[in-house]
Amino acid sequence: MMHTESAEPVGFPFTAIEGQPQLQMALLLAAIDPLLGGVLVEGPRGTAKSTSARALAALLPAGRFVNLPLGATEEQLVGSIDLEAALQRSAVQFRAGLLAQAHQGILYVDEVNLLADGLVDLLLDVSASGINRVERDGVSHQHDARITLIGTMNPEEGQLRPQLLDRFGLFVRLENVPSTAMRKAIVKTRMAFDADPRGFFAAHANAQAALAARVAAARAVLVAIQWPDAVHDQVAQLCQDAGVEGVRADLVMLRAARAHAALQGREQVTFVDVQAVAELALAHRRTQGAPQSQEGDEPSPDSGGAQTSQPSDQRADQSTDAQQAPPSSQPANAQTWGEMSAPQAVPIQTVKALRPFSSKKA
Q1: How many CB atoms lie within 10 A of CB 177?
Q2: How would DSSP label each residue in 234-303?
Q3: What percentage of the chain exceeds 70 in pLDDT?
Q4: What share of the chain is helix, strand, coil (3-state, %, to 5)?
Q5: How far apart are CA 209 and CA 353, in angstroms?
Q6: Is residue 61 predicted with pLDDT exceeding 80?
Q7: CB atoms < 10 A from the CB of 101, how many?
Q8: Do 105 and 64 form a contact (C-beta atoms < 8 A)?
Q9: Catalytic member of 146, 190, 214, 248
Q10: Residue among 229, 224, 153, 194 nearest 16 (CA)
Q11: 322 has a pLDDT exceeding 70
C-alpha cells in the first residue's frame, strides 16, 4: 500500500523572517496580551505583512488563523440566528461567526483600510474587550472572543479615518528593503523555503518551539507583573511630549511594556521595556503640533521625548519684538505683500444734466 505525504500546506516559520524586527516585536506583544487592541501594519507590497501574521498563529496554543474577507457582512463576523434550527425546530439558537472561530487565535484583515468603517469599529471594540455581544434578530448572546487582531494596509490604496486609526493598539510602518545585503538575505531565505517547505520548517523547529514556549510563559505571568511609579512617570512624559489626545496611548504603552517585560522574563516593567514599545504606541497618535512641557516639567534625559514646539518665552520675545519694530524698518512691499491695499478716495465727476423725459401722446 502506497503512503503519501499530507497535502496540508506548511507555513513559513516566524523565526525565519528576515529584516522586520519591529513587526515581529509588535506581533509577539499582541499575542501575549490580546487586549492591547490589535496591530495595524502599514507598508508597501512584498514586505512580509501577511506572511508574518500567518506565521504568528503557529506560536499560539490554539494555532487558529481566521481571515476576514473584505466582502464579509456583520452577521458573518459576529454571528446570527440559526435559521435551520428556527425552521426545523422553531428554536431560537445562535450560530457562531468568525469572531467565535478566531477565539484564542489570529483574526487577520488584509487591506483593512478598504473594510467598511462599521465593521472596523466593531472589530476594535471586540479586540479591546475580549467579548462579543450580539443583540439582533431576537438573539441576545455573548461569548468570549480574545482575538489577536492584525490589520494590514498599503497606504497607496487609501488611509483609515483618524478615529479608527487611534483605536488600534500598536502601529508598525514598514519601509522598503533598506539595503542590497538585506534584499539578498530575504530572497535566499524565501527561495530555500519554496524549494523544500517541510525541510525548511524542520530546520527552524527548535527555534520555533523555544519561542512558542516563551510566549506561553509570558502569557501565564502577565497579570503578575507590576509597573513602578517611575515607569508611570516616564510613560506620562512620553505621551505628553508627543501631544497625543486622551490617555489611550498611555494605557497601550503600559500594557505593551508589561508584555515586553514578560517576554524578557522580568518581574516588573523597566525603562528599557518602555523604550522598546514607545514608538509602536505613539507612531499613529503623535500630533504635528505637540504641546510644550510646562515650566518645571522638563522631560528626563532617558524619557526619549523630543520637543517639537517652540518655548513659550522665546515665542513671547519674538512677538514683542515684532510689535515694537518700527514700520519703517521693513520695506513697504514686505508689509503689504499679500494684503489688500488701503481704500483710496476717488473724485466724483460732474455729470451733464439731462432734459426731462416727456411721453408721446397716443
Answers
A1: 18
A2: HHHHHHHHHT-SSSHHHHHHHHHHHHHHHHTT-SB--HHHHHHHHHHHHTTT--TTPPPPPTT-PPPTTS
A3: 72
A4: 50, 10, 40
A5: 105
A6: yes
A7: 15
A8: yes
A9: 248
A10: 194
A11: no
pTM strictly above 0.85: no
Checking if the pLDDT of 171 tops 70, the result is yes
Cell of 112: 483593512
Query: How do 148-153 and 106-110 pair as beta strands?
Result: parallel
| Count of helix runs (H) and strand runs (E) in the chain | 15, 9
Q: Which of 162, 151, 113 lies closest to 286 in space, CA to CA?
A: 162
Active-site residue flag, 248: yes
pLDDT bracket for residue 282 (50, 70, 90): very high
Query: For residue 268, what are the β-bridge partners?
Result: 226
pLDDT tens-digit map of 67-125: 999 889 988 898 877 666 556 665 667 788 899 999 999 999 999 999 888 899 899 89
Please calculate the CA angle 45-49-52 and round it to the nearest 5 degrees: 145
Residues 6+ apart with CB under 8 A from 296: none
Residue 130 or residue 355, greater confidence? 130
Q: CA 174, 176, 181, 183 torsion: positive or negative?
A: positive
CA dihedral 29, 32, 33, 39 (to 10 degrees): 40
Per residue in 223-258, pLDDT (tens digit) is: 999 999 999 999 999 999 999 999 999 999 999 999
Strand partners, 110: 152
The set of residues, in sequence order, having a beta carbon less than 8 Å from that of 140 and lying 6+ positions away, is: 134
